[in-house]
């Protein structure tokens, strides 16, 4: 067994302990069902061996920061559990174990369908009526708005100025954008535009910020939604995660097979539930730039390299067209 396999086995045993299994049976309490490679991690799904026992999920976070990210995710999940108890359909996964040395977080498996999968059924033009997918997507997007509003209600006193956080995320996006064929001059113009947005909006109350608030990280479960992936939850501006979520749907609309009116309806449902009023055009741009900048750096290697390469070119072209259409003046 490799070092990380041994560490995962130990973390799963620790989870079995938390779930009340006796010492002698912890080692065999769970059976591996599936391994799911994700962008920055490898996720292991385990079934409970005893009948009726829920499954668990062990996430191994890659990279030098893996340990720190796992520790941070565990801390966030512990804190957020008191605000998202689930009674009103707004949840976070239950933390079972964490290994900050190897970058492992173990949570209880949340049963249900990921929102991006449900959206594919609800928004695909060729499949206008996959059951009640659109109705379920409407309810889930409203809940996602309320989930974010709840996150923003949590008081943070330690940070007075949100600007450094915004500038760090702006510069990270600009760096990703540099991967496409765009002139340094254009990049500078875009950066200057957002710096002036940050400046005029700098009085905003700092809130907890989920930097990947998107349907990929939402499970539509029994009676509600559960939001995943809290390893990089940090401080931010109240419009940031909202704009990132909104931009996910804007990005979907760039695909020719997506139903535009249904997509727009889901954007509205989300913003209505968030109840902070309409998103400013500058923040809409912020969300789109952040969202699309992630489409530029998909490494094209491995089994489906040529398909990924094609996708990457497709997104780069669309992103460039979108960037050119914007007026980068405030
Ligand atoms: N507690 C959980 N219950 C069910 N599925 C989960 C759970 N945790 C993670 N997953 C699955 O693993 C995927 C990756 O986990 P996530 O925490 O989002 O990490 P990443 O940073 O790699 O996106 C999720 O999109 C989801 O499909
Ligand atoms: Mg994720």
Q: Architecture of the largest domain, according to CATH? A: Alpha-Beta Complex
Number of domains: 2
Total strand segments: 11
Amino-to-carboxy terminus distance: 57 Å
Structural class: alpha+beta
Major pleated sheet: 5 strands, antiparallel
Q: Name the shape in a single word.
A: globular
**CATH topology-level fold name of the largest domain:** Aminoglycoside 3'-phosphotransferase, Chain: A, domain 2
- The mean pLDDT is 91
Helix content: 40-55%
The gyration radius over C-alpha positions equals 21 Å
H/E element sequence = HEEEHEEEEHHHHEEEEHHHH
CATH class of the largest domain: Alpha Beta
Strand fraction? 15-25%
Protein model, in words:
- The structure is a single chain.
- The chain has 330 residues and is α+β, with helices and mostly antiparallel strands.
- It has 2 domains: 3-108, Phosphorylase Kinase, domain 1; 113-325, Aminoglycoside 3'-phosphotransferase, Chain: A, domain 2 (Alpha-Beta Complex).
- 48% of the residues lie in helices and 15% in strands.
- Strand 2 and strand 3 form a beta hairpin.
- Helix 3 (115-123) packs across helix 4 and helix 7 (238-252) packs antiparallel against helix 8 (260-274).
- It starts with a helix and ends in a 5-residue tail after the last helix.
- Bound molecules: adenosine-5'-diphosphate and magnesium ion.
Task: Give a quick rundown of the structure.
The chain is of the alpha+beta class. The chain is built from 10 helices and 11 strands. Strands 1-2-3-6-5 form a 5-stranded antiparallel beta sheet. A 4-stranded mixed beta sheet has the order 4-10-9-7.
């Amino acid at each position: 067994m490799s070092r990380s396999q041994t560490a995962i086995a130990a973390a799963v045993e620790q989870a079995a302990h938390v779930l009340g299994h006796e010492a002698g049976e912890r080692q065999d309490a769970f059976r591996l069902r599936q391994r799911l490679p994700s962008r920055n991690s490898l996720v292991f799904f385990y079934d409970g061996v005893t009948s009726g026992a829920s499954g668990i999920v062990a996430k191994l976070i890659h990279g030098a920061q893996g340990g720190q990210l796992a520790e941070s995710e565990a801390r966030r999940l512990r804190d957020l559990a008191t605000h998202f108890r689930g009674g009103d359909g707004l949840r976070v996964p239950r933390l079972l174990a964490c290994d900050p040395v190897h970058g492992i977080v173990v949570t209880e498996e949340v049963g249900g369908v990921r929102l991006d999968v449900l959206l594919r059924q609800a928004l695909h033009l060729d499949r206008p009526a996959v059951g009640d997918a659109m109705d379920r997507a409407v309810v889930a997007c409203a809940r996602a708005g309320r989930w974010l509003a709840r996150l923003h209600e949590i008081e943070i006193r330690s940070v007075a100025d949100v600007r450094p956080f915004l500038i760090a995320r702006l510069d990270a996006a600009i760096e990703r954008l540099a991967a496409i064929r765009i002139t340094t001059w254009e990049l500078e113009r875009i950066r200057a535009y957002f710096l002036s947005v940050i400046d005029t909006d700098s009085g905003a109350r700092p809130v907890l910020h989920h930097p990947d608030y998107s349907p990929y990280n939402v499970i539509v479960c029994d009676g509600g939604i559960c939001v995943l992936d809290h390893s990089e939850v940090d401080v931010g501006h109240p419009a940031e995660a909202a704009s990132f979520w909104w931009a996910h749907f804007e990005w979907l609309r760039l695909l020719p097979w997506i139903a535009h009116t249904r997509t727009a309806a889901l954007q509205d449902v989300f913003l209505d539930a968030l109840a902070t009023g309409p998103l400013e055009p500058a923040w809409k741009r912020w969300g789109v730039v952040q969202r699309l900048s992630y489409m530029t750096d998909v490494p094209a290697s491995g089994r489906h390299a040529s398909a990924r390469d094609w996708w990457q070119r497709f997104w780069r072209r669309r992103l460039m067209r979108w960037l050119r259409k914007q007026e980068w003046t405030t």
